[in-house]
Design goal:
The protein is built from 3 helices and 4 strands. By secondary structure, it is an alpha+beta fold.
């Protein structure tokens, strides 16, 4: 419990003076803290998950933003589902082999 409280205080201390949308790295590779607007006058802190490449840079311009542990659990389920793996593998192969212009008029049945 004390470690959780210390982590919360450290995040608060780090983010209180951060600019909006500033990405703050953490000691966990691929996990960043970001202050975002909430409503018209508020702000909140979110976690951005964005794995790093070999040079230590995020692999995507923007990663996955989360502020709720239930969101994390639900995304974890989707990421580990067999259908998601199959769909990503199929898209990867498609992108290697064909021109996407041919696919525009035919929806894909997952």
């Amino acid at each position: 419990m004390k470690a959780e409280q210390e982590l919360k205080q450290e995040i608060i201390n780090t983010m209180v003076n951060a600019k909006m949308w500033m990405r703050k790295p953490t000691t966990a590779k691929g996990i960043f803290l970001i202050k975002v607007p909430q409503g018209t006058t508020g702000e909140k802190v979110m976690i951005e998950i964005n794995p790093l490449d070999d040079q230590g840079r995020p692999i995507k311009r923007r990663g996955l933003f989360l502020s709720d542990v239930n969101e994390l659990r639900e995304f974890s389920k989707v990421f580990s589902s067999e259908k998601a793996v199959k769909a990503v593998n199929a898209v990867q192969e498609i992108n290697k082999e064909i021109n996407l212009k041919n696919l525009r008029e035919n929806p894909v049945n997952l």
